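Hi Q.,

Before the meeting this afternoon, I wanted you to have the NAP prediction in hand. No need to reply - just skim if you have a minute. The sequence and ligand are here:
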Amino acid sequence: MNASQPILIVTGGSRGIGASVAVGAARRGYGVVINYKDNRKQADAIVSEIVEAGGKAVAIQGDVGREPDVERLFSETDKALGHVTALVNNAGILGPLGRIETVPGPALAELFAINVAGAMLCAREAVKRMSTKHGGKGGAIVNVSSALARLGGAGETVPYAATKGAIETFTFGLAQEVVSEGIRVNAVAPGVIDTEIHPADRMARLGPALPMKRPGRPDEVANAILWLLSSEASYVSGAILGVSGAR
Ligand code: NAP
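Predicted structure with the ligand bound:
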């Protein structure tokens, strides 16, 4: 274990934006924990890609919507790589699609447990380890919101958009709560990004109608996240950085 190496946990790092963050962070010298829920094969493939390029990474399973899993994710990280210094709260689901009349209660509860409570529980465990108040050396947290927090998602994804509104308020509040303890907290708000989160026909339907006439790529969001984590953003906290191609 190298005490001076920055250690990143990226939740939902097996695919999409999270996988791109993991690979980019390893290139920048972080030891990386790739959290995933089901997709062990893909998480292991990202670990292999990093290790083969000379970096350090481990995959740790855990559902961020379950408190014992979150606690285990952080304690296993402590053992494998040391205390976390950077957290990307990226794991998220779209939840039920359709108008409000069609939304089942249990699906709403699951959506908020993963997208909102999950991010808060991970932040809680990170702050316990990063805060100078608890003997830590500080750190940085980036939450992944969505342009839909501002746009609302009418007709299709209103509950999902509302989870991202909660994430943005959480970002402002937590940033103020811990800024004097060496921790910066920011968020990115991506527009439509080409990942597996979207139903099969969605990219073809939405892509050409976007201001840039194309969806974003995961690495275009990852670059913004990695900048917010870096010392180049040393006076940036409580910010929501749009990565939406002017959407
Ligand atoms: P994605 O391709 O569907 O990947 C989702 C990742 O999250 C996977 O690694 C998945 O793990 C993991 N995950 C899902 N539920 C989890 C849980 N309960 N616990 C732990 N991990 C879990 O998604 P993405 O498009 O990259 O989205 C990443 C983040 O960006 C999300 O917060 C999403 O809301 C946000 N976002 C995406 C877009 C977009 O257009 N793509 C736009 C705005 C915001 P497994 O592989 O094990 O299933």
